[in-house]
């Protein structure tokens, strides 16, 4: 039952492990099949055409079979781990001939070149490990779907157990000191779990932090930290992404100054202050490395959870919950959000729509210095809209501020039909005495 597809899969796996020994191992596999089946299968000939040795007669097949039998056998399979490999420079006649073979698989001769190459290969592998880029959320091993899925489900189950143990001790809606502290600890643990799982789940936590109609204040107070208090990544990695996307050798070709410390770090990207060659103060938004791979893996798991939720909870008060549809919609939106070219175009359109409101400031963008993962925008100072000092500032009229916010959103919704879809406090700032 050996198929051509199976052999191709074997070749791909061998080449991933060691491209140097792939040809030799495939030749050995061909000889093994010849010895086991007596003649090569019709479907295997095209696959082994570049590896097949000259076996035009029955005698040659028998010789190859004898060579295989000379190998030590482990669990019924010829074991060549302690034997010496063939020299790749040898021709196929050196492997199988109609007479006594020049070198059999069981000979004790050792090639110095093979030993030297293997040591160099080990040194090269060690160098590659040192140069390997490490991500705080998704390292090279976890990029595989299975490992990442195990990480997600492991943390989800542990939190679910802790959640039911905590909530089971207190009546639903209890406002006792012990119940409030228990929920606060639970929310703090959830926040840490979301941060460790990465951008997809941090975005989910940011959404939860705005639902004051669903969660109690102690939970909101913990989750609100996800809007800004997200760990960043090294500035050298940000510079490498900028150079890679903008196709430049060094960021000094664009920026006179580039701050190493990020101004802010968010779930999908982080922002650095910089100065263009003409002296303009800007902020540079750089996307996190490996984000596409991570979102793809995470949403595959989220879709599974959503499909399971649809089966366990198909209706809520007679209305279909459609958790799977919600997950797919969220995935579509997030894929668009990580393409900064779309964000730049939206920013320019939003700026045009808000032109008749002098108290709304939309930062300018710089298309020549922006790409899919890099967005350069004008630097505008301001204070977070939830900053308590805003209400105490005598220069700020709270009623006027509220009216302007309401007017700006009515302008977006009713007049243009193009509005800000992520209005959490981290995306809205107040600038005192600003009029265009």
From TrEMBL:
Pfam families per record: ABC1
Polar residues biased stretches: 94-117
Domain annotation ABC1 atypical kinase-like: ranges: 226-430
Basic and acidic residues biased stretches: 79-93
Region ranges (Disordered): 77-134
Similarity annotation: Belongs to the protein kinase superfamily. ADCK protein kinase family.
Name of the molecule in the record: ABC1 atypical kinase-like domain-containing protein
Species of the source: Aureoumbra lagunensis
